[in-house]
Write a structure and sequence with these properties.
The mean pLDDT is 85. This protein has 52 residues and is mainly α. The termini are far apart. The protein has two helices and no strands.
């Protein structure tokens, strides 16, 4: 039996990283080009937009 507990800081960080990786995979699968540009990656991850 597995006992679930409240997520700790490391769990929350890991989940956030997984979510970001998922967002990148979705963007990559929808892209027409072979690779995402650095600008598109920044857009997907909300880098430099002040939204983080």
């Amino acid at each position: 039996m597995v006992t679930l507990s409240a997520p700790n800081a490391q769990d929350r960080l890991a989940l956030a990283e997984i979510e970001l990786c998922g967002e990148l995979m979705i963007a990559a699968s929808a892209a027409r080009e072979d690779r995402l540009s650095s600008d598109r990656i920044d857009e997907v991850l909300n880098v430099g937009t002040g939204d983080c």
